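Lab channel / #folding
Pinned by the channel admin:
"Please post every new chain as: sequence first, then the structure tokens as a reply. Keep commentary short and put observations after the output so the thread stays searchable."

First post following the new format, from NK:
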Amino acid sequence: MNVLIAIDGSKEAKAALDTANRLLSAVDRHIDLLCVAPKPRQKGQNQSNKNGYERRVLGQIAQILAQARASLPSEGAVINLLPEIGSPSASIVNRAEDYDLTVIGSKDRTATGGMGLGPVASRVVEHAMGAVLVARELRSEEGVRVLVAVDGSTVSLHAVDTLRSLFDISSAEVCLMHVAETPWIEAGPEEDWVTYSEEDKERSEVGVMEKQLVRDGETAVEQARDVLRADRLSVTTRIDEGNPANEILSEAERGQYDLVVVGATGGRDLKHKMLGSVSAKIAWNAPCSVLIVREPE
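Reply from TO:
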């Protein structure tokens, strides 16, 4: 398991490192700790000043990396330190494709106007090719609760498989959740949907579609459960109706989950185009860590 963990000495980066250490499988860990300092902004700087800046910054980076390494258990793991000067977001994105997982910290929502990602993390989430863990501080010292959003797509099942292969979920509580997106179809030329009786709703085109969406959800949940069946996990399921991102975020808060898992297609196919926007909204607003898994090539 090759993991890239981006750090910068901030409290959010430290929380991300601690969370990744607890969540990731301890088997065959190969971790690269990356710390990137931005280039100096002053124009017209002479070479002597530039070299002096780089020496100071590289010294600071070395201290940050050494502290991060000391916080990780060395037994059974290979840990490399990667100091760099450049664009933090570009460096992380360019490297991400070579790793099984990229771990990035998240800015505190109170410090970013209610949003849960800073500028670097948001670019990594949007552009990195590969699985990305937006790691936030865990809710408790014991036990892990995982909420997995499933929709029956290839990337959704790939996300479940990524969870089981990279994360230590042997003692976790896992909930597989499907949200049937409520269809807003005109009920009739003279009547509004809210005026329909329950019997009329069930017989209508919208009612038939809703039932089909629920059946599709049940199939999607069972497919995801099959991926986890061999691990003998504690797995529960739920099927809701409504806006996928809103329902998943509400359940993540209500259920006090430590990790939400979502797939992201990037809009490659029309049927699952919504999943890209869903995953982005969850990454920004979730009260816990979020694992975003890209559609495999």
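NK: Residues 106 and 117 are 5 Å apart (CA to CA).
TO: also worth noting, The chain has a mean pLDDT of 83.
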